[in-house]
Amino acid sequence: MGTTVTPELENNRIEEAVTLNNMTEQNRNNAPSQKFSHVGAYSSLYTICQIVGLLLVFSVFYWILNFRGGFGFTEAKIIFNWHPLFMTIGFIYLFANSILHYRTFRSLKKRDLKNHHAIIHGCIIVLVLLAGWASFASHMYSNPPIPNLYSLHSWLGVVTISMFLSQFVSGFVSFLYPGIAVQYKEVVMPYHIFFGIFNFILAIGTSVLGFSEKLIFALDKEYKNFPKEGMFGNFLGLLCVFYGALVVYMVTKPEFKREPKPEDGVLLTGALE
Q1: From the CA atom positions of the chain, what is the Rg in Å?
Q2: 37 vs 2 pLDDT, higher one
Q3: Are 188 and 174 in contact (CB under 8 A)?
Q4: 123, 91 in Cβ contact below 8 A?
Q5: Are 103 and 258 in contact (CB under 8 A)?
Q6: Average model confidence (pLDDT) for the chain?
Q7: d(CA 231, CA 240)
Q8: Entry pTM
Q9: How far apart are CA 211 and CA 83, in angstroms?
């Protein structure tokens, strides 16, 4: 049995089709403006992120220079002061920039971004090893010697470093070593991304715990009297948490993701980009 199409019904269909086409065309026209809007928002947040990160590094430097006796290699307490500075530069500031690198320099080739990512992580490993040496050497040369690896901060530090080294090795083998199958990369990528972000969050938490531990040991009963160093140390912890939250927001927001380019070839596109 046939269906009779009245002029009114036909006109309605034509109007719906025209409206749908107009909406589709409008979405296409709005897409570039939305893209530039997201890029502009990311650039603004990235500028704030750099300011906060550098402020954190210089604040730690100021804290050690003005409250902890500065830097050197002659006394145990002075040797230890390299530990928080190197850890802040490596495990917080450089770590943050390494996971934001894909989204920050989105115009570069994917292969170059991967190489930069690996190089920054290599620099972090050097700084972390120097920071670890400073901690163990200061304990060893103290009179009497101080035991190692007994606090929660040190345990979390070992976990954080071990996870970072595992991420570095697995990432190098999976994404930079030639001849690895694309199917294997697709399986590894989500885990690499998740544990990378989790590793950064763990580094932030471990650092905040380290600041608190150092203040308690150094100030002892004076800490409860709101001394300048205690308040400044608390500020360092809050600044560290704020910086970590800002970085995690920027690296997990889908709108800030780098769009794949034709020259990327078969290289995978991950959530960190």
Answers
A1: 26
A2: 37
A3: yes
A4: no
A5: yes
A6: 87
A7: 14
A8: 0.84
A9: 11
Residues 6 or more apart whose CB falls under 8 angstroms from that of 95 comprise: 124, 199, 200, 203
> Token pair of 60, please?
């730690």
C-alpha 55 chain-centroid distance: 16
Nearest to 247 by CA among 203, 184, 188, 182: 203
Q: Can you give the chain as a three-state secondary structure string?
A: CCCCCCHHHHHHHHHHHHHHHHHHHHHHHHHHHHHHHHHHHHHHHHHHHHHHHHHHHHHHHHHHHHHCCCCCCCCHHHHHCHHHHHHHHHHHHHHHHHHHHHHHCCCCCHHHHHHHHHHHHHHHHHHHHHHHHHHHHHHHHCCCCCCCCCCHHHHHHHHHHHHHHHHHHHHHHHHHCCCCCHHHHHHHHHHHHHHHHHHHHHHHHHHHHHHHHHHHHHHHHHHHHCCHHHHHHHHHHHHHHHHHHHHHHHHHCHHHCCCCCHHHCCCCCCCCC
Task: Report the distance separating Cα 76 and Cα 15, nearest Å.
Answer: 82
pLDDT tens-digit profile of 230-250? 999 999 999 999 999 999 999
Residue 256, exposed/middle/buried by CB under 10 A (0-12, 13-18, 19+)?
buried
